[in-house]
Structure prediction request, 239 residues.
Amino acid sequence: MLRELTSLIEMSFRQMKAYLAVNLFFAIVFPVAMIFGFSYIVRGPAVYYFVSGVIVLQVSLSNILSVPQNIGWDRENGRLSLIISMGVPLWAYAIAMTLPNNLYAMGSGLLVLGVAVAMGYLSVSPGGLAMLILALLVSSIQGSMVGLLMAARIRNWRLLQQVSQIAGFGFSFFAPVYFPLSVVPRYLLPLAMLEPTTYAAQAIRLSLLGDPASFVWDLGTVVYGAVMAALASKWGLKA
Prediction:
């Protein structure tokens, strides 16, 4: 089983390598350009909302968007059917599909922080950095579980592409990511709490501030991801 899992993970990394140009663009060029461009506009306490928002966007694009699209492509070209026929457990396939994206998201998030700190845009304590790494880890896993659920429920390749793109960008800009959760109207608050990026954004922003309240949102992120994983497991990934 370990050999099959290792092979699947290697296959996933090779698939990412095939899209090296676009991966490098979204991992490096895009976030760096956003930090440089908006650093002259966004100042004061809003800096932490902006930087954490850029990091959340990276997590969202890497997991909520990319994970279901990769699985959908495997389903479309018959690779998922072949994997299932070989007797490989779907949990092993899920790990192989999500691990590279999780590492990619965490690396991108840390790069965004590094650029912001190098520019003197903000500062983060060692404790805050440790909190951020934890927040990135749980947020990436949560995003992957949301992606898995979409892939489990939507089998039409074209529809899955559309839904994952709308979700990947929508959860980044129509959730309290770049603005405080406290400004969300009461009647919209239940909707905001259903969005996965709400939890990730609070955890990441508070970690940048070194606020221990980040751990509370980390826990909420884990619970949200566990619910998504349970639903994805219930419906399963069918070829």
